[in-house]
Amino acid sequence: MSSTEAPISITVKSTAGSLITVRAETGNQLDNLVVEALEAIKSAVSELEAAAKNQHSQAPMTPQQVAASLGASIVDNAPAPAADGWATPTNTLSGPAVGGGRACPHGKMTAIQGTGKDGRMYRGYFCPAPKGSFDKCKNDYARIGTAEWNTFVPDQVK
């Protein structure tokens, strides 16, 4: 039998939830493996768990760090992040006008008018980046009763 299908095994769960399994062909072999490996396993698990805790306690990467790690560059005219490292999103039809519409870093936004699942009408501008893109811009909706709502000219009706 191979060691991954050994007839005897012990699985131990650490305080952080890590599982450690030791397998052996005989009882004596299992005893020897446990005695020899117990401290090494304990030390390795402790190091891994400490590293995982430290990894989660670090601040999130900035967009510039993510781009640099991927060998990419950022093309963005958005305002600088706030003191806490996060930019405050805006959703007030404040994007630059482009031929009667709006634009974002990805190009001309599509003006769409339609009815939502809840039955309410919506009018807004939608980023042309592919669905699911990590840098896709937020939809920019017009508010009912405003001048933007009343003068909205859709590119698409849904």
Task: Give a structural overview.
The protein folds into two domains: 3-57, no CATH class; 63-157, no CATH class. The longest helix is centred in the N-terminal third of the chain and has 31 residues, at 27-57. Mean pLDDT is 76; it is low at 90-94. It is of the alpha+beta class. A hairpin with a 5-residue loop joins strand 1 and strand 2. The protein has a four-stranded mixed beta sheet, with no helix packed on it. Helix content is 27%, strand content 23%. It is built from three helices and nine strands; from the N terminus they run E-E-H-H-E-E-E-E-E-E-H-E.
Compact description:
It is built from three helices and nine strands, in the order ββααββββββαβ. By secondary structure, it is α+β, with helices and mostly antiparallel strands.
